[in-house]
């Protein structure tokens, strides 16, 4: 199973006040709060961790059909270095800029099941995609970019549809084959992950 | 608790986060915060914090995880207020 999540950092900064009392405490675990507190850009770390939890929530929701707002059930750990010099987005007059794309990977543990994720911070957005195994993660077809181009990225024979639980699939009208897809939209950006 | 009054108070709380104004105008007990009001999932925590502040209560994790619609919010607040 697969999941993905995209965060438009400029919109996130408008929509959420991460400094309000209780915000960090309700969403993050102790070790995650330490990661946020020690990050050179705490706000970017907040949204990176949040996108990991969301991407894995989508996998769990797809598997169980159960809706829950329980971010503390998703424990994130980064395995690759996040604070590599020169790759971090810098906040410049309200805009996040990144000189070169930063890439992170790691795991999210949910109810004793380990999920693997890959995150990329490109310009002013974070895209995270996740799967139940490293192999599946490597095989996934992933797209992230401007929401404006979203309608053009699927093959012409493909149709998106959602089942009664709101879980999305791609139907290939020519072959009749149905494949699971994970969709994410936030502000100017759109993310998608599906199986090859 | 007066249900109509509670829904009115909740409407004011969710107003800044709701992206579907038509659903906000028609808010009722079965309104879902995400599916109907199109509240960003990251803003659900703001709804929880605003409800805590408004009613001077502390919402536990087990309660927060099911606070996805108006009815659930009402049940949680009602239970908390009756404990006071």
Automatic annotation (TrEMBL), chain A:
Pfam families given in the database record: ACPS
InterPro entries found in the cross-reference section: 4-PPantetheinyl_Trfase_dom, 4-PPantetheinyl_Trfase_dom_sf
Naturally occurring in which organism (per UniProt): Chitinophaga hostae
Lineage, uppermost ranks: Bacteria, Pseudomonadati, Bacteroidota, Chitinophagia, Chitinophagales
SUPFAM superfamilies hit by this protein: 4'-phosphopantetheinyl transferase
Gene Ontology molecular function: transferase activity
Domain 4'-phosphopantetheinyl transferase: from-to ranges: 2-76
Keywords: Transferase
UniProt protein name: 4-phosphopantetheinyl transferase family protein
TrEMBL record, chain B:
InterPro entries per record: ACP-like_sf (IPR036736), PP-bd_ACP (IPR009081)
Record-annotated Carrier domain positions: 4-81
PROSITE patterns named among the record's database cross-references: CARRIER
Name of the featured protein: Acyl carrier protein
